[in-house]
Write a structure and sequence with these properties.
With 62 residues, this protein is α+β, with helices and mostly antiparallel strands. The chain has a domain at 14-56. It has 1 helix and 4 strands, in the order ββββα. It has one helix at 48-56; strands at residues 14-20, 27-31, 36-39, 45-47. A hairpin with a 6-residue loop joins strand 1 (14-20) and strand 2. The radius of gyration is 15 Å and the shape is elongated. The structure holds zinc ion. Residues 21, 23-24, 26, 39, 41-42, 44 line the site of zinc ion. This is Small CPxCG-related zinc finger protein.
Length: 62
């Protein structure tokens, strides 16, 4: 029997991300396996890269 370590097997694949949905401002959850984030409200799916770049930049300068 093959046995291998699956780091996701014992962990919930969803981790709370400290980012807001780009669509509705809801809470995003990071889906670690896919490197994606999903919104708990509108179910919009974003790549982590997309969210990082969107929220790292200032939206508007006053
Ligand atoms: Zn949303």
């Amino acid at each position: 029997m093959a046995e291998f370590e699956n780091p996701y097997a014992t962990e919930d694949p969803f981790v709370e991300a400290h980012f807001d949905c780009l669509e509705c401002g809801g809470k995003l959850w990071e889906y670690a396996i896919q490197r994606q984030m999903v919104c708990e409200d509108c179910r919009a799916l974003f790549t982590t890269e997309e969210v990082f770049s969107a929220q790292a930049k200032p939206q508007a300068e006053a």
